[in-house]
Amino acid sequence: YTKVGNLVTAYAYINVGSQSTGTGDNLRILGLPYVNHASGPYASVTFGQLYQIDVAAGSPGDITGHVAADTAIIYLFSNHDDANYVPLTGTAINAANVGVMLSITYVTDS
Description:
Strand content: 35-45%
Structural class: mainly beta
Low-confidence stretches: none
Order of helices and strands: EEEEEEEE
Largest sheet: 8 strands, antiparallel
Distance between the termini: 14 Å
Number of helices: 0
Radius of gyration: 14 Å
Helix content: under 10%
């Protein structure tokens, strides 16, 4: 990550090397270096690549993510055509070698 003043830019490559049975819990990526600004706004995640992740039936396949105000957690979602996004759950990970490349820039109070 890089921090200039109160602006943080973080990059990540995450690989889940072995397959396990996913749960219905919402997928989150923990461990951002700083907490997002307490009064918002949400920070959007840019995905460079996603692979071996299943999205819900009827979804156009768009996976999005954000960091809510006053957290250091990336929450993952699946967009559905003409509907609200829904949380991406652990059941979406059902293969070995799941991978995510991402970057995010957000404001911190630190």
